[in-house]
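S1.2 Input.
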Amino acid sequence: MEVKNYQRYRIILKDKKIESIEMNGKKVKGFLQPVTKKKIPKLYVVKSKSEVIYVGVTSQSIRNRLRYGLTAQGGGGYYGYLWKDLSEFEILIWSFTEEKSLNRIEAVEAELVFLFRQHKGKWPKYLRMEIHFHDASEDERKTAEAIFKELSR
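S1.3 Output.
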């Protein structure tokens, strides 16, 4: 599994809605491909004040996933992101355009949060209530390690 470049955005929220998106310190109209594509597995990491607070996966477009997590109010038992009251955050998104299985990305996600626990002594602050654990291959563990190293820089 190849870890390619990721996209990094700064998101400003107002009333739990995206008010502005910045990339490389400049305001942009929206997210860029491939994170805008559905059916492409993505792993995303949310940081607040340089601290990793959340790790998630999705195959939806990132805008739709964020909208759902920011506005959910309990319908079907889902209340959305625990961090949705933040006024701003940074999001780093890795898209796995060659990967068809979300299960493999979920394995990377589980390995990544384990690395945080192992190296930082604690889980990300708003760790998902549901982590999908799959037996991780050596390739998936190496992918998680590469992402962890990037986040630790």
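S1.4 Remarks. The chain has one domain: 7-151.
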